[in-house]
Amino acid sequence: MLKLRVGLAQISPILGSVQENLRLHLERIEEAKEQQVQLLCFPELSLTGYVLKDLVPYVAMTATESAPAIAELLTASESMDLLFGFIEEDKRHRYYISAAYLSQGRIVHVHRKVYLPTYGMFEEERYLATGDRFRAFDTRFGRLGVLVCEDFWHISAPYALWMDGADVLLLISASPGRGLSPEAVLGSSRSVELINQMYATFLTDFVLHCNRVGVEDGLNFWGGSTIFGPDGRLVAQAPYFEESLLVAELDLGAMRRVRMQLPLLRDERPDLLYTELRRMLRQSGVASREQ
Amino acid sequence: MDITQRLLLNAGVTRRVLVAFLRRELERFGFRKAVLNLSGGVDSSLSCFLTAEALGGENVLALLLPYRTSVPESAEHARQVIGLTGVSSKTIDITPMVEPYFEQFQQMSDVRRGNVMARMRMIVLYDHSVQWEGLPIGTSNKTELLLGYGTLFGDMASAVNPLGDLYKTQVRQMARAVGVPEAIIQKAPSADLWVGQTDEGELGFTYAEVDKLLYLLVDERYKPEEAIAAGFDPKFVETVVQRMRASQFKRMPPIVAKVSRRDVGHDFLYPRDWGT
Question: Which of B14, B17, B276 sits opposite A14 (nearest CB)?
Fold first, then answer.
């Protein structure tokens, strides 16, 4: 299959109400269905809202169909593949910022956010446990990779997914807008757009970024969801600050053409990186013992 | 680095964020209306413009609360803002409310009297917020908050503050962009609590100067000695750092003595916008 019709649902979740957010999801799924969307992405923590603090345990669910919200979304995934964000509770009662990929009534993949920002306005590690893996996964549309917000501020995370075979990166976030300047774009928007474009260019992958909108506890979420093609060009962008459903058709054949011209994937040397990293880690181990 | 350049903002995007903030933070608590104290200065004028844009002028009540020594120009400027924004307004003279208290303490300093007036205005604001069924909108800017240049539970009191992350010089840029009359933007800032009072006279430095220093110390996380190396006068840096430190309590809720396993203040940490 060479064409993939994707949707990015740029929503404004209700803080702490899974029920209301589920309704928001189902509405957007209906809307996307009318536009023949095959894969619909929602932002980070789309089922719960972001500034949860002590609400984390109260909105958490297991990543199984025994969670009512997930059961409903599994049913909805009969009509299109879905990616959404939620608080996951594991068997031993640890909580994660997770993203689940559902397809045809099955949970295909769950990514637990690895990098939890705990600085400045962020305090995720106070409330949440960290994920411990970056894994690409197979879908009916090809091999994909999912990252959540701060994950993709670490260059190693998209790289790891790339090496694991991901051709389409699905990045979801709840990115607070900040950074004033004479430019008509907030500094945070500018940075995220730049790094997403950079990943698309360096990895010759499709890079989709679904960001949320709305306001929580004085934080504004800027939206502006983007799709960059494997040549680094912008395919489509949702408006800033407004709820919207961005729909675009990805020409997956573009990857072949771009990689013929620019065979970065072919020439990449993960073995060399591995050797060098091992050396550096050994040396830094020695260095830290000597300090 | 040209720090003045760093304080320039795009009014369009800033306005969008602030108007959405006002609308959403009121609506989520079931409010469509707002009330604010309009002094005729640039801060409250900007708050008034933004709130009117967010909610519609008919949903905003501007309170003019003069004291007998207030300069007449303040009320005139406030009336211009009311005309331009289409907000409702009410004028209430606070003189008969505060004078009986002043009479009991003949030796009150200007600062004490100013605090009483600022808190009297807060009482009127919060009382009208019940009657008008609207939330009180703040008018304190980032410069004032960082310097602690305001009366705790007085002019610093509000439910929602759209200006708290804008330095005074940025407030002026925004005011110009939304259409606040130039005379209001240009005049010397004053709390007008006593005759001849001006902010810059009382503080001992100008907003233009202190905003640049605060930007380095707060936004860019310069150490004081780095700010001095960047060209700021050591005494000025020391004064400003000391002011920030000494006024930290004004930027926080009252501190709670912890004795239980979970207390309000330390580890009962729900978002303010809980369930909205």
Answer: B276
Domain positions in chain A are 3-290
| Residue B266 near chain A (CB below 8 Å) | no
Inside any domain, residue B117: yes
Say whether residue B12 is in contact with chain A using an 8 A CB cutoff.
yes
Q: Please judge whether B10 and A183 are an interchain contact, meaning their C-beta atoms are less than 8 angstroms apart.
A: yes
Say if A218 is an interface residue toward chain B (CB within 8 Å): yes
Interface test with B, best of A190, A212, A215, A241 (most B CBs within 10 A): A215
Euclidean distance between CA atoms A55 and B28, whole angstroms:
18
Chain A residues in contact with B272 (beta carbon < 8 A): 217
The domain of B67 spans 3-199
Q: What are the pLDDT tens digits along chain B (276 aa)?
A: 799 999 999 999 999 999 999 999 999 999 999 999 999 999 999 999 999 999 999 999 999 999 999 999 999 999 999 999 999 999 999 999 999 999 999 999 999 999 999 999 999 999 999 999 999 999 999 999 999 999 999 999 999 999 999 999 999 999 999 999 999 999 999 988 888 899 999 999 999 999 999 999 999 999 999 999 999 999 999 999 999 999 999 999 999 999 999 999 899 999 998 878
Q: Which residues of chain A make contact with B6, given a CB cutoff of 8 A?
A: 181
Q: Is B183 a domain residue? A: yes
The count of other CB atoms within 10 Å of the CB of residue A165 is 14
Report how far residue A142's alpha carbon sits from residue B5's, in angstroms, rounded to the nearest whole number: 48
ipTM for the predicted complex:
0.91
- Chain A hits for B172, CB-CB cut-off 8 Å, are none
Q: pTM of the full predicted structure?
A: 0.94
The number of distinct structural domains making up chain B is 1
Is B150 within a domain? yes
Q: Decide if B114 is inside a domain.
A: yes
Can you give the CATH number for the domain in which B158 is found? Answer: 3.40.50.620
Nearest-Cα distance to chain A for B17, in Å, is 7
- Spell out which residues of chain B touch residue A182, defining contact as CB-CB under 8 Å: 8-10
Q: Is A190 on the interface with B (CB under 8 A)?
A: no
Domain A3-290, CATH homologous superfamily name and number: Carbon-nitrogen hydrolase (3.60.110.10)
